[in-house]
Specification:
By secondary structure, this protein is α+β, with helices and mostly antiparallel strands. The chain folds into three domains: about 80 residues, ApbE-like domains (T-fold); about 100 residues, ApbE-like superfamily (T-fold, Orthogonal Bundle); about 110 residues, T-fold (Roll), CATH 3.10.520.10. Helices cover about 35% and strands about 30% of the residues. The strands form five sheets. The chain has an eight-stranded antiparallel β-sheet with strand order 1-2-6-7-10-15-16-17. Helix 2 packs antiparallel against helix 7 and helix 7 packs antiparallel against helix 8. The relative contact order is 0.12.
Length: about 325
């Protein structure tokens, strides 16, 4: 019996030693960062892993997913479904489950905003020079009224998986597709075991939890009045950010700057806000909301945010700030 007890004791001691050895030899995860040029901008990705080759392989999968979305839907990409829909005699396309999800969310926001959020804005953007041809003068009222006839998302129908549009209606994916691509990349990282991650295309950000040490991701907010200054620093964990601003994309006509977020009713850039920042669970939705909020009244923004668990910050044209209660900078 003593021999058996001794053997059992030795086995338990060996097991404890073996477990301690494994714990002691386990590598501490390192931070890995990569950048790629996609969607016409640099997209940065940060993850933590204890294996460099594995980390690079996972990030490659995530970047490939972003590229897939770009090639499939980007209205500026000549290979995409939407570019072909906009630039050929084709007036309908069949949507897969992914396409149905994307355009159903667009449809919802179009209805919620009473048509303020409208992704058929492309003819107006082109008129103002946001395309291949620059303008030397501000569009005339006659030109604006003419293109406004072709801006109306109600002329895009989605039924039984088929998206149909009327002739001369063109879809612009700039206000939502990067955010959706970041959401998909985030899911690829999660599916491959990444527990702490950060993906940024500057105006769209998606995160997985916080940093490896448990701290939050810190994002500096530009001051729209002076881009060399910070308005403040956001700290987030497992949230997404969408930013829309009058300083991000603009054209200069006769020495004046005109930004790309348009009021489809007046035909001119929206002039009562300089920046909108949205925090929510999805980069796709954050992008949609930040663009939508640019054209909505403060009351409607507050009501929508309260109902949908969204935090926001608005910098008005006079540089005053309005924000939701839990938006901290």
């Amino acid at each position: 019996m003593k021999k058996l007890k001794t053997n059992k004791f030795l086995k338990n001691l060996f097991l404890i030693f073996f477990i301690i050895s494994i714990i002691g030899c386990k590598k501490t995860p390192e931070k890995f960062t990569q950048e790629r040029f996609l969607f016409g901008t640099y997209i940065q990705m940060i993850i933590y892993s204890d294996n460099k080759e594995k980390a690079n392989s996972i990030m490659e999968k995530a970047f490939n997913e972003i590229a897939r979305i770009d090639n499939k839907y980007n209205s500026k990409n000549k290979n995409s479904l939407i570019y072909k829909l906009n630039n050929s005699e084709i007036e309908k396309i069949e949507l897969d489950e992914e396409g149905k999800y994307i355009f159903n969310e667009i449809q919802k926001m179009y209805e919620v905003t009473d048509g303020i959020y409208d992704i058929t804005i492309e003819p107006l953007l082109k008129l103002w020079g946001f395309g291949e041809e620059a303008r030397k003068s501000v569009p005339s009222q006659k030109e604006i009224e003419e293109v406004k006839k072709n801006i109306d998302f109600s002329k895009v129908k989605i039924k039984d998986g088929i998206l149909t549009k009327e002739k001369n209606i063109k879809i612009d994916t700039g206000s939502f597709l990067k955010g959706y691509a970041l959401d998909r990349a985030k899911e690829i990282l999660r599916e491959n075991g990444i527990r702490n991650g950060f993906i940024s295309s500057i105006s769209s950000i998606a995160t997985i939890n916080g940093k490896m040490d448990g701290s939050s991701w810190k994002i500096g907010l530009q001051n729209p009045k002076n881009q060399n200054e910070r308005l403040g620093v956001l700290e987030i964990k497992d949230k997404s950010i969408g930013v829309s601003g009058d300083y991000q994309t603009y054209v200069e006509i006769s020495g004046e700057k005109y930004h790309h977020i348009m009021n489809k009713n007046t035909g001119y850039p929206i002039n009562d806000k300089r920046m909108v920042v949205v925090i929510c669970s999805s980069a796709f939705l954050a992008d949609i909301y930040s663009t939508s909020f640019f054209g909505m009244t403060e009351e409607k923004i507050k009501n929508f945010s309260n109902e949908n668990n969204v935090e926001f910050l608005i910098v008005k044209t006079d540089n005053s700030i309005t924000k939701s209660k839990n938006f901290k900078i």
